[in-house]
Amino acid sequence: MTDKFDKYLEEEEHFLKDKKKSRKERKLKTSKDRSKYKKTDLQKQKKLSPAKKKEKNHLDKALVLSILGEESLVSFNKKEYKATLRGILKKEKTKNKNILAVGDIVNISFKNEKEASIESIDKRYSILSRLEEKTKKQSIIAVNIDQVLITTSVVKPNLKPFLIDRYLIACIKGKMKPVIIINKIDLLKQNKKEEEKYNNFLKTYEELGYLILSISCTKKIGLDTLLNVMKGKTSVFSGQSGTGKTTLINSVLHTKFKTGKLIKKTYKGAHVTTKSQLIELKTGGFCVDTPGIKGFGIWDLEIEDLKNHFFEFESFAKNCKFEDCKHIDEPSCKVKEAANKNKISFLRFEAYRCLIKEILEKKRNFFK
Predict the structure, then answer these.
(1) Which H or E run contains 42?
(2) pTM, whole model, 2 decimals?
(3) pLDDT tens digits, one per residue of 258-304
(4) Quick one: angle between helices 346-366 and 192-207, nearest 10?
(5) Which of 81, 241, 306, 322 sees the fewest Cβ atoms within 10 Å?
(6) Angle 247-253-257 (CA atoms, 0-180°, nearest 5)?
(7) Which domains occur in the chain, in start order?
């Protein structure tokens, strides 16, 4: 009995060894087999692609026209749909106040004939944004923009060069071309002090190479020039409340968007435009009307941004006593000397000092 059992164990062990050997040989043979890389087999694999790929293929690209609270208005094949963000996008943790903005190209799936769901957002080539003071987050105004029409006025409200400088820096950071619009020039004759400020501003900023359009909607001055600048481009009107952004759009495009009157006591505009909206031009291109702002904090402002903007300081800065001179109150500062001798605009120098102090203050608070 024992002999038979021992013989059985020997046979079983031999069988298992053969089985393992056979399996190993089969595995080696399969690894060397190139038939699975044949064109016909690859085509079969393509047909049996995962559900995720199929799902991605059926999505359609749409353009965000405006943000309506939790919903957005998007355009697909010249038809408008109300769209909502997928829950997974809402949960996305970012430094931004808003995930979606006017001008975004989004991938949508349709719920029905009037509604859609935003599944994803395409990469943006430009962003106009500002710092939201309360939340300290980036508030995105508009995206995929070619140029920013920085809208200001000579009086009611008065010209604010410091505010324009902030916009110009935001344009450089956001990869957009700046165009400065000075509206209401028909009111200059009524205010000699503001006329002098306007002329100084023109001289300084035109010499620096900035495009400035002087316009009067009431006298119809400069409107054709503005339309030519807008043709074939996506432009965003942005600036202080009451400078006439919507009035400019109505005058140039012959639209009838609602406008408001200035508050007599402060000469500031009431916030009539409450949301940004993308408007198509008959001559080609788009423009965005945006709500007016009181102040413009620059998102993620760094010293390097100031060097790029105040480029006329460079030839003087390299001769400063200290290599890391911030051009505030340091001894033997050649930039400050140049400003005092009118070799560079004192207006620009003051704007720079205001911004550099803002950066240094932010850094001090960070290390507290």
Answers:
(1) helix 39-47
(2) 0.79
(3) 875 544 444 444 445 558 899 999 989 999 999 888 889 999 999 99
(4) 80
(5) 322
(6) 45
(7) 55-121 (2.40.50.140), 127-289 (3.40.50.300), 303-366 (1.10.40.50)
